[in-house]
Write a structure and sequence with these properties.
The chain is α/β, with parallel strands linked by helices. The chain is built from eleven helices and eleven strands.
Length: about 280
């Protein structure tokens, strides 16, 4: 199976593509920056230079491809218009191009942020998305809806992986969590997932038979509190943090029963502490 990976030079993609290559999967990547793509090319990836928003580049990248793992996204630090252009508009156009190219799998990396608050329990895949009002989760939720419509109307072989807060393997994301944890109540929790487990979840999603149209939460077994996040990063807690109000103790927590049951997913790092003890930060 020849797999096209978008977003291959980003935080998730740059760790996922080597895993694919280690599995002896033929891999093509679509990347804007030749210098950032070059290390993946040296590992054996077929590199196509181009912008995800360029329909011609996407069409070229899809030639001879069996499956797509779409990781390309705009997160923080970009204007809202750019986030929408990449996360929604370009994603839908890529899916349409993938349909024309006849791919047999289209795996879309989304986020558990789209659930928002108010479920009063861990979020499950059937819950109606209620993303908070900023561009990243809103554009991802809009893209999901459009892709699911394409699946229903035109048979897009879609599998959606909703990722929790990704960390590990040199990714600074865990350290960046302090920026929010400083302002949280100490008992507010964040659901994590290690890059190794993102990798195995994406591999399971792309290889699974009979999974078209399905959505899977991807997270570890033990959400951590703001107090733990601060401690893991060597940060003291503010004196008033323990008494801060917490409106929804379940916001951001995802149920992973479905991916366990249907794809056989079991976290390599079920807690952040197993990853720390293994030297996998």
């Amino acid at each position: 199976m020849t797999i096209l990976v978008t977003g291959a030079t980003g935080r998730v993609g740059s760790r996922f593509v080597p895993r694919l290559l280690q599995q002896n999967e033929p891999v093509r990547i679509l990347a804007r920056d030749p210098a950032r793509a070059e290390p993946l090319g040296r590992l054996g990836a077929d590199v196509v230079i181009g912008d995800l928003r360029d329909s011609g580049a996407a069409a070229d990248a899809l030639k001879g491809i069996d499956a797509v793992v779409h990781l390309g996204a705009a997160f923080r630090g970009v204007p809202d218009e750019e986030a929408v252009a990449i996360n929604h508009t370009a994603t839908v156009e890529l899916a349409r191009a993938a349909l024309r190219a006849g791919v047999s799998r289209f795996v879309y990396a989304s986020t558990t942020l789209i659930y928002g608050a108010g479920h009063n329990r861990p979020a499950v895949e059937a819950d109606e998305p209620a993303p908070p009002g900023w561009a990243y989760p809103t554009s991802k939720a809009d893209a999901e809806k459009a892709l699911l419509d394409l699946h229903g109307a035109e048979g897009l072989p879609l599998r959606i992986a909703r990722l929790a807060f990704v960390y590990g393997e040199g990714d600074p994301h865990l350290a960046e969590s302090v920026l929010w944890a400083r302002d949280w109540p100490l008992h507010k929790r964040l659901h994590l997932v290690h890059h190794a487990d993102v990798g195995q979840a994406l591999l399971r999603a792309v290889r699974a038979s009979g999974a078209d149209g399905e959505i899977f939460n991807v997270a570890d077994d033990a959400p951590v509190t703001a107090l733990e996040l601060l401690s893991l990063n060597g940060e003291p807690a503010a004196e008033d943090a323990a008494g801060r109000a917490l409106d929804d103790p379940w916001e951001g927590i995802a149920d992973t029963a479905k991916i366990r049951r249907e794809l056989g997913f079991r976290p390599v790092y079920p807690t952040v502490y197993t990853a720390r003890d293994a030297g996998a930060f």
